[in-house]
Each structure stands twice: as structure tokens, then as C-alpha cells.
Amino acid sequence: MKFLLLPHVPRQDKPDHDQLRELVEYAVLAEEWGFxxxxxxxxxxxxAVSSAPPVxxxxxxxxxxxxxxxxxxxxxGLLDPLRAFEDYSTxxxxxxxxxxxxxxxxxxxxxxxxxxVTPENQWERLQENYExxxxxxxxKNVTWEGRLGRSLQNAExxxxxxxxxxxxxxxxxxxxxxxxxxxxxxxPVFSSNGSxxxxxxxxxxxxxxERFTAYGHDPRRARVGSGTGGYFGARTSQExxxxxxxxxxxxxxxNRTFDGGSISYETVEDWIENSSVLVGSPQQIIDKVxxxxxxxxxxxxxxxxxxxxxxxxxxxxxxxxxxxxxxxxLRRELPSRPLDGGH
Amino acid sequence: MKFLLLPHVPRQDKPDHDQLRELVEYAVLAEEWGFxxxxxxxxxxxxAVSSAPPVxxxxxxxxxxxxxxxxxxxxxGLLDPLRAFEDYSTxxxxxxxxxxxxxxxxxxxxxxxxxxVTPENQWERLQENYExxxxxxxxKNVTWEGRLGRSLQNAExxxxxxxxxxxxxxxxxxxxxxxxxxxxxxxPVFSSNGSxxxxxxxxxxxxxxERFTAYGHDPRRARVGSGTGGYFGARTSQExxxxxxxxxxxxxxxNRTFDGGSISYETVEDWIENSSVLVGSPQQIIDKVxxxxxxxxxxxxxxxxxxxxxxxxxxxxxxxxxxxxxxxxLRRELPSRPLDGGH
Lengths: 343, 343
Known about the structure:
The structure is a homodimer.
Chain A: E1 2-5, H1 16-33, E2 37-40, H2 53-63, E3 68-74, H3 81-94, E4 99-103, H4 109-114, H5 122-138, E5 142-145, E6 151-155, E7 168-172, H6 176-184, E8 189-191, H7 198-214, E9 224-226, E10 231-233, H8 237-257, H9 268-274, E11 278-280, H10 282-296, E12 300-303, H11 312-333
Parallel strand pairs in A: 1-2, 1-12, 2-3, 3-4, 4-7, 7-8, 8-9, 9-12, 10-11
Antiparallel strand pairs in A: 5-6
């Protein structure tokens, strides 16, 4: 198993520039702790401040040397594919080939609205932009007439990438179409494995693997990453629940402000028992991840601590615990392939 | 006088990713040598590889600590102003407020074509995008209906900047309208002071200063930066001309491939004698800059060595000479105000 830290600035009651610098600091710590990858999500509305992941990750690339740099996710449907190529190709070169993209439609309507993207056209935009982005990466001379208005004539997109193949993961929360799209292109998928029952995510992954083979790809090249409903570990399950309870309450409150908010659990105990969230002692968390792995077969686990109401000290302590007590066991029990090296 | 290094990768017969890394390396060197600022131009066609200045400058920001980071220029008319804001606000925060923008229409038709910008609409786009960019920087809640199709409803662009005011210079090669536009907004201008007769640039700067006052701004707040036709200094004028001759020949050859190529000089001696280029011994260059300063009153000098046919050793040596022999005298003779601190 490999581990991707998706950071969350604890207690966001500070200026945006301090939050940005904290995100850089956590990347440096994540590399020290031994995380394999660090992920910055593209968001254009609060509470996030990471509206420009390539700019942020490029800074992080200069402060780190081995950790892989993920976007989690890049809302590629909101971007001009040529500009996205320019940004990410520059970042990949500057980081010495440490970039992995995770692309998705994005779950935040306000972000999409800012760029004129609607629920009706977001999927078409994501697909078309993916296809053009891929061509710009692999081909030196691209002519393109898109259905969405983008056109190029014999364009050489610069800088030319140092790697022939960039790994692009497809965020796949609930739609068969994105799993099919990833399979068709021989790409890996990233399951949100969010607050729904795990069977739903497992079915989708199974579908992805079937389609992967059906499209003629070697099934051993299928790759799966997975999120969870969050992580909060402590020495004992009692301590974990006590410290996590206000996190759950805060999340529930935020969730209620969304249309279609997805948390249908009323108590923290119910949530811990019946969702994918990783809360408890190290052994409880190890057991739960192994159980999830039996269903999903994922090689990369996205670790995320909801930070809104946590003190910084608690935030850092639980991540350190993950690396000292949980990750070593999971690495041993659940082997995986290297992340780098393209396909 | 302050000094801005606009780098140029010598001998571009290397992969794009090596050129990018060289641009980072020169920024680190520029800070060591004592340059006040380092500028990356936005270009989307060869021979340049810097299509994503915010990504490149963000990496440089992590490798440096005091040098100011310029874009020279940002072709703001080709960008979505909201994305440009997101990129540059992120960069400014990560760099601790070290960003200055220089904006311009850009002189490269191929770059513009890639983004659907034409000679007919480029000026309108640049103006409108500037106005929206400024509002996004200073106002937390922006509603906008642009003439070019961009619309926003109560948008809070993120991350919120750490500085209230970002200095935006207006690249001003030959047009009165850009000088007037800069003056209207109380912004500084950057004169290309290119291959034309200096009187033309001096007239434009004079016009800018008049308009600056006419718009009700304190004339002491007007600021001018200036380029030149290039720099190549050596211990003696004979050595400088000998080493610079192939640089001139190469530049002339490239120039002939452009529509409206602007170099009308046939010999290197004529070019050195009658254009703004800085080629010669340290004393010759000092005298020439002082002469230009009498005409333009600029506080910031953009230093640029055409590198196409230079060895790396010659490229670095002439920049070192600039800093050891030329800059100290010019700093003493031509005082200027600090670059940082907004307006």
C-alpha cells in the first residue's frame, strides 16, 4: 500500500496566505514522515484556498525531493486544456517527473459556475478536455477542432514534457461512465469510497476492471486508489472518538448546507461503525483498511484528516501516529507497485 | 538605478525541461549577484519555453528569498482574468509579496493565435482583463459583465491577496494608448527602448508623465522602467564587439523571419553606435545608460543578454561583469526608490 496525504489546514481562522504557507509546510512534513504522495485539490470557493494547484505544487516541488505530487482533483473540465497542459508540463519538468494528475468533474457547484460550467455540460467538457490534454502531451503537432469551441492548427504545446507518459487517474465517485472512460484509456481510477456503503464503490471498481480488460488492456495494469470518509487515529479508540466527535459534528453541520449532502448518519458511533471513515486505535484502523482492501483492491490510500475544529497539535499528532504505527503494518500486509514510471 | 535580469538560456540545443531548470538556476545566481529583480516572460511559441510564468516563478520563489519576481511580460489579454488572478495571487502569497506584473499585448502573433486573440481585439482584451484583474485583487465581492463575455456574480476570488496593492507595470513599446492607460490607473510603465531611435521612446515617456499628472496623480509617483536592445559587456570594447558579433548576426537572421522585424541596422558597429544596445567596455556601458537615463528618467533597467549563440561560460561571465563593474557605478550615479511596497 502507498499513501497520499491530502492536507487540510486545521482551524482555518487565519489569512489565506498563511493557509497557503501551511500547505507547503505540510508537504515538507509529509515527505519527512514518509508519505509517498501529497495531493492538492483544485477549488475555487471557500473554505479552500488552493485555486491554483500547479502554482502551489511547483513551490512544493522546490521544497521537496522525492514525494510524488498529486492533484486531487484537477477539475479539468473547467480549464482550457492548452493552458492546463502548459501549467502541468512545466510543473512535471520542474519537479523531475513527480506529477500525477487526478481529474474529476468536481463536486462544488459554485466552482463550476465561475467558469460557466453546468451540470449538463460538465461531463462532456471533462472528456473532451482530457482527450486534447493527452494529445498535447504526447504529440508535437496538434490540429484540433473541438465540439466545445477550442481549435488548434499545427500547434506545438510548450514546454515539451520530459516524460512521454503522464499518469492520469480518474476520480470516480459514483458514475459508471467515468469508470468506463478511465478503462477505455487504460488509466487508473481513484474511488472516493466516501460516505455511501462500500458495496457501491466495490461494484464500480469491479466494473472498471471488467471494462479495462474488455478494452483490450492487460488487467494487471489496472490500478485503483481509494479515499475514505476521513482518518483520525489515536492511541486508544476512546481517545480517538472523544477527539473526533467535534470533527464529526462540524462536518455534519457543513454537510447540511450542501444540496444533496451525503452524510446520512446521525451519531458519530454510527458513522464510525458503518461508513468508510478510519477512526480508532491503530489496530482498528489497520483492520478496517485491510477489510476495505479486500473489497476494492486499491494500491494507494488517500489519507485525509478533517481539520476545521482540530488544534494544529492534534492534527499533526494523528498524522504522525499514522506513519509510525499504521503505515508500516499496511505496507507489509498490502504490497503495491511503485507509483512512478508512467503507465 | 535598480536592475532586472531577463534571462535567456544560452545555446538552446537542449531539452525543454533542462532549459526550465536553467531558468531556475539563473534566478538563484541573479539573487547572489545582487540583481533586484528577475523576469520571466509569458510566451507560447519557440524558442521560449516559459508558457506558464506563475508556475515557474513559484518554483523560483522557493529557491530565492529577496529578489523580486517580475513577469516580463504577462500577456494578460490572452488569459482568463479570474485564473490569472488565482495564479498570481497564489504566487504573491507564496513569495512573501515579491511579485510585480508587467503586462503587455505580446509581440508574437503565434502566441496570440493559440488563444483566439487577433490584432483587432488584443488591445480591448488587455484593457478589460486588466480592469477585472484589478477588481478581483482589491474587492472581495465582484459582480462583472464584460464586453468580451466574462461574467461573474458576487464572486470572491481566492486566495485573497496578502497585499492590498499589486504593482502592475504596463509594457509600452510604441503606443500612446498604453501609456495613457497606465497613466490613468496611476501605474508605472516599462519602455521597451528597443531598436528604434531613443527619441521615440523618450517622447512616449514624456507623454506618460504628462497624462499621469493630468489624471490627477502625484507626478512623483510616476515610475518608469526601460529595456535596451540587449547587453554584452567585456573588459575591453574590442573583446565585447568580437564576442557580440555572432550574437548580432544570429539576431538579425531571426529578425528577418518576422513580419515587421525591427532591426534596420546592417552592421554590428552601426547597431552598437546608433541603437540602445549596451555593448562595450564597462565604462562605455555606464556612459550609455547614463545618457539613456537623461532621456527616459527610468529607475529600473531590464538587462538581457541574447544567448542563442553564446557559450554558457560567456553568458555567465558577462552578467557577472555587469554586477561587479557596471551596476555599482550606476547605483551610485542614478539613485532610485525601493521596488517593493506597492504603489
